[in-house]
Amino acid sequence: MVVLTALSFLVALLVGVFIVRARGRIPARYADDKPQRFHVGHVPRIGGLAVGAGTAVAWLGAALVDGTPVNLNVRMDMLTVLFWMLALAPAVVTGLVEDLTQKLPVSFRLLATLCTACLACWLLGLAVDRLGIASVDVSLRQWPVLAVTLAVLAIAGLPHAFNIIDGYNGLAGAVAVLIALAIAHVALQVGDRNLAALMMALAGATAGFLFWNYPRGLIFAGDGGAYLWGGVIAMGSVMLVQRNPSVSPWFPLLLLIYPVWETLFSIYRKSARGVSPGVADALHFHQLIFRRLVRKVFHDDHARQLLIRNNRTSPYLWGFCALTVLPAILFWQNTVILMLFCGLFVLTYLAAYLAIVRFKVPGWLRR
After folding, report:
1. What is the pLDDT of residue 300?
2. Per DSSP, what are the bridge partners of residue 66?
3. What does the alpha-carbon distance between residue 230 and residue 211 come to, in Å, rounded to a whole number?
4. What is the DSSP code (8-state) at residue 70?
5. CA–CA dist 113, 45 (Å, integer)
6. Calpha distance 303→102 (Å, rounded)
C-alpha cells in the first residue's frame, strides 16, 4: 500500500514539473473578469492531468505486478482497473477540455458526469441499496432501479460539488486527501484492501499535485481535477457501503457533507434570487471567508499580497472539514450518531454563514 501511494505521488509530482514549465505554452487563459478568480497572472488549470496520471499509473502498476513479481497484497485485477478508468473518462476528459478551452457549456459538463455515473453503475454494478432508514431500505430492495438511480445521482453530482469548493490553493485537494484516507482507513478495517488501494493511490497523486499547488499556487486542479476527485470518491463511497454491510451508509455522507451541503445551499440561495444554479458567483462559504475573515496583507507586490491571502483561506476550511472527518472515522458503524453529526454540521454551517454575512464573527477568527 505504501509503495502504491509513493508511486502515485512521484508520478503526479513529475507531471506537475512539466505543467509548471509549460505554463507559457498552454493556450487558454483564465479570464480576468471571472467572479471566482483570486490570483494574478496566468496559472495552468490542468493540474487534474497530474492527479490523473499519478492515479492511473499506480492503479495499472498494482494490477500488473501484484503477486508477480511483487506481492503488494492489494488484490487489484486489471479488468476492475480498466472499468474504473473507462467509467471516469467522460467526466475527466471533458473537464480537461474545459480547462484548456473554457468554452464548454454547463449542460455539456453535467451530461459528461452523468455519463460517467451511468458507466460506473453498469460496469461495476454500483447501487445505493440501503440508507439506514428501515422504510426507505425496504423500497430500495423492492425497486432496484431506485437504488441504481441514487447511485447515478451521487456519482454524477459529487464531481460538481468538488468543483464548487475548488476555489483557493490547497482547499479541494486537501479535502480530497482527508476523505480518501478516511475511506481507505475504514476499507482496511473491513478487509476491503482493493478499495483501500484505489483510495490511497488517489491520495498519493493528490499530495503530489499539492506540492505545486500549495502554498505557491503554480498549478490549479481545474475542472479535470475536481471531476476526478469527485468521481473516484463517489464511486468508492458507494462501493464501500454496498460491499460491506457493517459500514453505515451515513459514513460517506458525513465525510462528504461539506462539499455536498455547499452545493445544495448554493443551489438554494441562487434559486431564491432568481439566478440559474449554473451561474458562477462569489458568495460561496470559502469566498466569504477570504473576503471577510482573512485580513488584508500589506505588500508592495499585489500578486504576492493576493497569494498570501489566498493561502490563508484554505486552513479555515480544512479545519471545518476535519470536524466531520474525525467523527465519521470514529463512528463509521453507528448510523444514528452519524446522522446527528450531519445535522450538527448543517446547523453550524448556516450559523457561520449568517455570522460572516452580518459581520458578527469573533475577532480571534480573523487572521
Report:
1. 47
2. 70
3. 20
4. B
5. 19
6. 23
Mean pLDDT, residues 285-301 taken together: 70
d(CA 23, CA 27): 9
CB 28 within 8 A of CB 157: no
Residues 247/51, Cβ–Cβ less than 8 Å = no
Cell of 141: 430492495
Could you tell me which residues are beta bridge partners of residue 70?
A: 66
Residue 236, number of CB atoms within 10 A of its CB: 23
Q: How far is CA 239 from CA 31, 129, 151, 242, 262, in A?
A: 39, 11, 10, 5, 24
The amino acid at 266: S
pLDDT tens track for 136-186: 999 998 999 999 999 999 999 999 999 999 878 889 999 999 999 999 999
Cα–Cα distance for residue pair 98/365, rounded to 1 Å: 36
3-state class (DSSP) for residue 66? strand
**Which grid cell is 191?**
478487509
29's grid cell: 487563459
Note whether 200 and 5 are within 8 A (CB): yes
The alpha-helical segments, DSSP class H, found in 102-249 are 106-124, 134-142, 144-165, 171-189, 193-213, 222-243
Which class for 192: exposed (0-12), middle (13-18), buried (19 or more C-beta within 10 A)? buried
Q: What percent of the chain has pLDDT over 70?
A: 88
* Three cell numbers, residue 175: 479535502
All three cell numbers of 281: 458567483
**CA-based R_g, the chain, Å:** 20
Question: Which uninterrupted H or E stretch holds 18?
Answer: helix 2-21
121-130 average pLDDT score: 95
Q: Greater confidence, 11 or 101?
A: 11
Q: In this predicted model, what pLDDT tens digit does every residue of 260-281 receive, in sequence order?
A: 999 999 998 888 888 878 777 7
Tell me the Ramachandran region of residue 191: left when phi exceeds 0, alpha when psi lies from -120 to 50, beta otherwise: left
Cα torsion angle, 351, 357, 360, 366, sign = positive
Total-model pTM: 0.92
pLDDT tens column, 25-50 = 665 555 555 555 554 557 888 999 99
Whether 76 contacts 7, CB under 8 Å: no
CA distance 264 to 259: 9
